[in-house]
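step: validate -> pass
step: tokenize input -> pass
step: predict -> running
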Amino acid sequence: MSIFQDAILRFGRTIMSYAGDAMFLQAAVSAAANVIVADGDVAEEEVEAAIVGIRANPILEKSYDTLRVEQELYEAISRAKTRAGRIENLRAAAAIAERPIEQRQDVFLIAADVDQNSVRRVTDGSGWKPNGKNGETEQELCFLAIIMRVLDVFA
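step: predict -> pass
step: emit ->
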């Protein structure tokens, strides 16, 4: 049964990679946008890191070109500038909560890659204070923790 389920899962991923998985893309750009905007500044390095992270995902890379990814990301960033928009972005991320753990982890890691040094600090609980050397702010860490919780990434 496990081999059969694995085959079905792989087949589904292959189909989604060619058909486009809009929900997965929305989850990725929404989570990343909330982290990008968390400190009140939209830094070009953070936007680039999000695009690179999204394009590195095999499903999203095959399904969407860079222009589409950028468009979706900038729309999510625009939403994230308001409280209502941040909640809308969290809902988009939470929409994949029933998906396989790998997809949820991918979305979390895309958001975490916006701030390169946050993953370790959020997942091991070693720090909740701004760290001037690494550049992450308390708000970015807080959003990563919320995203981690919404996606139930490390269950």
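step: describe -> The two ends are 23 Å apart (CA to CA).
step: cleanup -> pass
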